Amino acid sequence: MGGFMVTAIIGAFASEYGSEWSRLLPFTQHDLMTMRQVRNNIEAFFIDEDKLPGERKLFHGSLKGMVAAVGDPYTRFLDPEQLSEEDMEMEGEYGGLGMYIGARDGKILVISPIEDTPAFRAGVRPLDEIVKVDDDVVVGMDQNDVVKRLRGEPDTGVTVWMRRTGEDELKSFDMTREIINVKTVRSEMMDDVAYIKLNNFHLKSAVELRGAIDAAESRDAGGIILDVRNNPGGLLDVAVDVASLFLDGKLVVSLKGRVDRAGDKLYAERGLATDLPVVVLMNEGSASASEIVAGAIQDHGRGPLVGTKSYGKGSVQSRFPLPERSGMYITIARYATPSGAIIDHKGLTPDYEAEGEPNPVTSGDKQLQRALEVMSEMLHGAPGKSEYSLR
């Protein structure tokens, strides 16, 4: 009876408005009938009646499935609750474990743990694959659903099981959720070198980085080590703002997409750049906006990259608002560094390879020690380093 009624209603509209109405329908009448049949079957036969999703959840699920059919992990639908959570994260404070995750090749991977958070303190590393959260196996699960399981009320415990490359057995991490306050910039002087750790590309990142650079110049710093290790990226325009602090009016990134708005070339603003020599410190947790800035600095010969190959997230997403405060992200372009290199799924290769992990004890941070050596060679004119010596 339900199928007959849907057919009758659609048929009445089609008769009254003709082909114009048919063009407005998202699918054929037959497809809409099938969708209605699927819903009827769920509501009539699903065993746990008390767990049946409501109408809006079913509708949002159908939209999520339609977007997922594209096969791109970064093109996704977010219901109102999920979109609200992402906005909260972008503002820099939320409850959880403190790690950015992403989907790749059907796996949910840690892009990077955030400094001084439960995930960071527990020893979670970039590229760890999340396999299980408490009793829920999350392999093949939607990224948004995994995020929902990882987050929760502060002071609640969670066990996350992960697979680490090169190790046979799963690693379990027992962590306690807490309010995550994302600290954008941390800086200190190391003799005559300013060490600046940039943790993300949020709304205030460029302003706070500008403040750290000004402070370094006021203390007669000879050079800057910009540390974007475990920085998962963020907003594209903030990446350009950050690059403007090092590249005076130069090309930062080219976007290559299907439509005009996705084919821009974005340039650094003039008059903002410091002339201090710079070394960029990166690792496999450096992604997206971090790679845009690092790639531009490398391509323009502004400074070398030290560390390990970056993550390789070289696509650009645009957010589209939808009714009921839901929304969707669509991959509209891939970006190229100023030299034209496409790094999506490839990553940036450092000028100086250096293995190791971030360590709060400077002497124990092998990558940072290598970056300091490279900076010393630049400042003191070591042979072969003149292309990076700006003073």
What labels would you give this structure?
single chain, alpha+beta, Pdz3 Domain, 2-enoyl-CoA Hydratase, Chain A, domain 1, six-stranded mixed sheet, five-stranded antiparallel sheet, 19 strands
Structure notes:
The protein is of the alpha+beta class and 391 residues long. It folds into 3 domains: 2-45 and 52-78, no CATH class; 93-181, PDZ domain (Pdz3 Domain), CATH 2.30.42.10; 185-388, 2-enoyl-CoA Hydratase, Chain A, domain 1 (Alpha-Beta Complex). The chain has 11 helices and 19 strands. It has helices at residues 2-17, 19-24, 29-45, 55-68, 80-90, 118-122, 143-150, 205-218, 236-243, 289-299, 366-379, and strands at 76-78, 93-96, 99-104, 107-113, 129-133, 136-137, 157-163, 171-176, 178-181, 185-190, 193-198, 223-227, 251-257, 265-267, 278-282, 305-307, 315-322, 326-336, 352-353. The strands form 5 sheets. A 6-stranded mixed beta sheet has the order 10-11-12-15-16-19, with helices on both faces. The longest helix is centred in the N-terminal third of the chain and has 17 residues, at 29-45. The protein is globular and about 75 Å long. The N and C termini lie far apart (81 Å). The relative contact order is 0.10. The model is unreliable at 1-10 and 383-391 (pLDDT under 50).
